[in-house]
Amino acid sequence: MYVQPRDFKINSLKDDVSQLKDELVRLRKEQQQPVPQGEGPNNVQEIPETERSLPTSPFTEIDESSFQGIATELPLTSLRICYQRWSDDKQTELQKQKFETDFVGKRVSWNVEVDSVSETAQEKIFLYVTDPVDHWDRPRARADFPATDQDILLKLRKGDRIVLRGTIKEFFLWPSLRDCKVEDFKHVELVHDA
Fold first, then answer.
1. Is 112 left (phi over 0), alpha (psi -120 to 50) or beta?
2. HSE-CB of 13 using CA atoms within 13 angstroms
3. How far is CA 26 from CA 21, 86, 88, 192, in A?
4. What pLDDT, on the 0 to 100 scale, is given for residue 41?
5. 128 compared with 72, residue with greater pLDDT
6. 28 contact partners, CB below 8 Å, separation of at least 6
7. Cα–Cα distance list, 20 to 86, 105, 174 (Å)
């Protein structure tokens, strides 16, 4: 009887997790793309010839400095933008790795909505947040807090709007943050239909 080496099994499991992660991201993308009203095969608009023409030169001068702030600032100020840029299935693995390398270790400040707060485990409490703008398939993030922050986290309720500040620790199914602080929270009363 032949038994596979442990390292081979671990690598195989990592590959499986990676494939599942990619499939989950793809499925979320498909769910996020509803057809806007007024668009479809029956409402095709003709694009004027002047707007369809391509520049005659294959090399167009672009001032890249005007895009520097946009490319580096938006993921740091919006969970939705950060998640969309990271999970973009049009990116190659190398591009995705570059995005992760560029943003891991960076401080973020996101306006988010509380989804849940875990119990204390191993001296940590996990705060799960979602983007308040997207309602269909909300981007999520996990924020790690030390158990000493329990008093602050006990005040939070599902649906509360907060400003979450932290440092990106890693990306897996969503961004994970460390060294976090909760600021400017507002309780949102949830209305339940009887």
1. beta
2. 7
3. 9, 12, 9, 32
4. 46
5. 128
6. 87, 137
7. 16, 26, 13
| Residue at token pair 């992760």 | 100
Which range (36-40, 97-101, 183-187, 189-193) has the least confidence? 189-193
Three-state secondary structure along the chain?
CCCCCHHHHHHHHHHHHHHHHHHHHHHHHHHHCCCCCCCCHHHCCCCCHHHHCCCCCCCCCCCCHHHHHHHHHHHHHCHHHHHHHHHCCCCCHHHHHHHHHHHCCCEEEEEEEEEEECCCECCEEEEEEECCCCCCCCCEEEEEEEHHHHHHHHCCCCCCEEEEEEEEEEECCCEEEEEEEEEEEECCCCCCCC
Which pair of tokens denotes residue 178? 């460390």
pLDDT over 70 (residue 65): no
Domains and CATH numbers, the chain: 77-186 (2.40.50.140)
Distances 122 to 52, 70, 145 between C-alpha atoms, Å: 59, 39, 11
**pTM of the full predicted structure?**
0.57
Could you give phi then psi for residue 145, rounded to 5 degrees? -125, 145
